[in-house]
Design brief:
By secondary structure, the protein is α/β, with parallel strands linked by helices. The protein is 31% helix and 19% strand.
């Protein structure tokens, strides 16, 4: 499962967005993976849980506010919302691979695009807008493998190429792309004039 890690919200709707986000995070059910009611299960191992909690603490010490979660019980890390972490702390510039989301406000669209690109990673980006000019501007400017409009960037279909740029992977996933990856193209040339 792919998680959204960085959320950029326009300053005019930031407060309302964060309030709604926190209400939704509060409703998430944490527990055992075999329980069908579980929405957030444990991370892969204890060192990963310790790393995730350490990254949250690092952000907090650097001035970010932890608005929800962030503690752990064994390998279960409570879903965390980290507000305004500096760009150079791990939760901002590394792939967390855990239940952590950062929220940052922005004033101008260009500023948000620059913030998205300020990363070694570029899997997918979600953009919520009805402005077609902004959609094409994001498609042109964002250094990501896919731009998903009015949907979370975790959206994928097997018949579409799924993958990232920069340090977010090599190649693409999906049926066609998996077949191409596992196939060795060969050429046969037969000269019939002899």
């Amino acid at each position: 499962m792919h998680l959204v890690q960085r959320i950029y919200v326009h300053e005019q709707v930031y407060t309302v967005f964060v309030e709604k986000l926190l209400k939704r995070v509060d409703l998430l059910r944490c527990g055992r993976p075999m329980d069908p009611n579980t929405e957030v299960g444990p991370v892969i191992d204890e060192p990963s849980a310790l790393r995730i909690v350490g990254w949250i603490e690092e952000a907090q010490k650097a001035g970010a506010r932890v608005l929800a979660g962030g503690s752990r019980r064994g390998t279960l890390v409570e879903p965390a919302v980290v507000e305004e972490p500096p760009r150079d702390v791990a939760v901002s510039c590394q792939e967390v691979f855990g239940p952590v989301v950062t929220v940052q406000r922005y004033a101008g669209f260009e500023e948000a695009l620059d913030a998205v690109n300020d990363s070694r990673y570029g899997l997918q980006a979600g953009l919520f807008t009805h402005d077609v000019r902004r959609i094409y501007q994001a498609l042109e400017r964002l250094e990501v493998g896919g731009v998903i409009v009015n949907e979370a960037p975790t959206f994928r279909m097997d018949n579409c190429p799924y993958g990232g740029v920069k340090d977010s992977g090599l190649g693409r996933e999906g049926v066609r792309y998996a077949i191409e990856e596992m196939t060795e193209p060969r050429v046969l040339v037969v000269n019939t004039r002899r």
